[in-house]
Amino acid sequence: MAAARQLILSGPFAYLIRIFKAEGFTMASKSKIAAAVLGASGYTGADLIRLAALHPGIEIKALIAKSHAGQPLAKVFPHLGVLGLPDLVTSEEVDWEGIDVAFCGLPHATAHQEIAKLPESVKVVDMSADFRLRDPDTYTQWYGGAHGATDLLGQAVYGLTEHYRDCIKDARIVACPGCYPTAILLAMLPLVKRKQIDAGAIIVDAKSGVTGAGRALKQNTLFAEAGEGLSPYGIGAHRHIPELEQEIGQAADETVRVNFTPHLAPMARGELCTCYVALKDDATVDSLRDALRDAYKDAPFIQLLEDGSIPATQNVRGSNYCQIAVFADRLEGRAIVVAAIDNLVKGSAGQALQNFNLMFGFDETEGLKQLPLFP
């Protein structure tokens, strides 16, 4: 063993070893990535912290939350107090030269303003809506104000991991999809790309837990208002509609319109999307399953269920998994595709971490191997 070690250190590998050491690498592992979390006091920020804190390649250097600046994390989120992370601060208090990546969980409009201030050396995994839409005019139409960082749109890659892996690896800014689009697009894009369904005739009935509305105080998410009831919202005008139409239209190579209605369900987290589709040509339920199976044969977090099994939010709670199943409709020429995710994990923080892994050369599943919590 000693002779073999001496051969490595003095032979042709010696030059490579010197380079690795000069760049801060060791033979065992590379240095941890220094991370900051913008919007650390929100639900997506909290779940990002929960996941990233146990990632072997991440060191959380800064937690940023303007209204909670100066407070310890244990006061804002008691369940995360055991982590011993830094107190929350403002963005201005952070030494950004020492940060490699920023996870952004800020609201739309606020996010692009803060991201625009960051040094070019900082990569960004954005969980807001500000860089999802490629057309700034579409953003203005749906979000009620002009985009304030249009010069950065060209640097942004849409972060639906399973469909944009190669682009995400080299991106500076990754725009993680909204929670609804994540579930819907994972179910629909392989079928649209294979021309198995009519891309312009998709109808989606979606339901989400109240964390999808954020942590800010809102009357409709109070326990007495949301508990023991089910209600639609954003009917015909939800802000995730242009995101769905952008991605489905690109896959279909045509302009499409998607019929999408979300509902608020009396649960903390979870999302279930039921998609009603019209089959094209000689497509069948079996060919839809084949298209999904082929698309996700190497996707570690996509669970394509067998005939008769039904996706459910309780089957993915707390995990980065997405369950998808295809069913025959009693109406001839139609099918029903159901997808379930945890809106805070695969629909936000988990997908963000999955994209981080690609951006920094980690295994795609690193930090995301936890199984669903049941019951």
Automatic annotation (TrEMBL):
<comment type="function">
    <text>Catalyzes the NADPH-dependent reduction of N-acetyl-5-glutamyl phosphate to yield N-acetyl-L-glutamate 5-semialdehyde.</text>
</comment>
<dbReference type="Pfam" id="PF01118">
    <property type="entry name" value="Semialdhyde_dh"/>
</dbReference>
<dbReference type="GO" id="GO:0051287">
    <property type="term" value="F:NAD binding"/>
</dbReference>
<comment type="similarity">
    <text>Belongs to the NAGSA dehydrogenase family. Type 1 subfamily.</text>
</comment>
<comment type="pathway">
    <text>Amino-acid biosynthesis; L-arginine biosynthesis; N(2)-acetyl-L-ornithine from L-glutamate: step 3/4.</text>
</comment>
<keyword id="KW-0028">Amino-acid biosynthesis</keyword>
<feature type="domain" description="Semialdehyde dehydrogenase NAD-binding">
    <location>
        <begin position="34"/>
        <end position="171"/>
    </location>
</feature>
<dbReference type="Pfam" id="PF22698">
    <property type="entry name" value="Semialdhyde_dhC_1"/>
</dbReference>
<dbReference type="InterPro" id="IPR023013">
    <property type="entry name" value="AGPR_AS"/>
</dbReference>
<dbReference type="GO" id="GO:0003942">
    <property type="term" value="F:N-acetyl-gamma-glutamyl-phosphate reductase activity"/>
</dbReference>
<dbReference type="InterPro" id="IPR058924">
    <property type="entry name" value="AGPR_dimerisation_dom"/>
</dbReference>
<dbReference type="InterPro" id="IPR000534">
    <property type="entry name" value="Semialdehyde_DH_NAD-bd"/>
</dbReference>
<dbReference type="InterPro" id="IPR000706">
    <property type="entry name" value="AGPR_type-1"/>
</dbReference>
<dbReference type="GO" id="GO:0005737">
    <property type="term" value="C:cytoplasm"/>
</dbReference>
<dbReference type="GO" id="GO:0006526">
    <property type="term" value="P:L-arginine biosynthetic process"/>
</dbReference>
<dbReference type="InterPro" id="IPR036291">
    <property type="entry name" value="NAD(P)-bd_dom_sf"/>
</dbReference>
<keyword id="KW-0521">NADP</keyword>
<feature type="active site">
    <location>
        <position position="179"/>
    </location>
</feature>
<dbReference type="InterPro" id="IPR050085">
    <property type="entry name" value="AGPR"/>
</dbReference>
<protein>
    <recommendedName>
        <fullName>N-acetyl-gamma-glutamyl-phosphate reductase</fullName>
        <ecNumber>1.2.1.38</ecNumber>
    </recommendedName>
</protein>
<dbReference type="GO" id="GO:0070401">
    <property type="term" value="F:NADP+ binding"/>
</dbReference>
<keyword id="KW-0963">Cytoplasm</keyword>
<keyword id="KW-0055">Arginine biosynthesis</keyword>
<keyword id="KW-0560">Oxidoreductase</keyword>
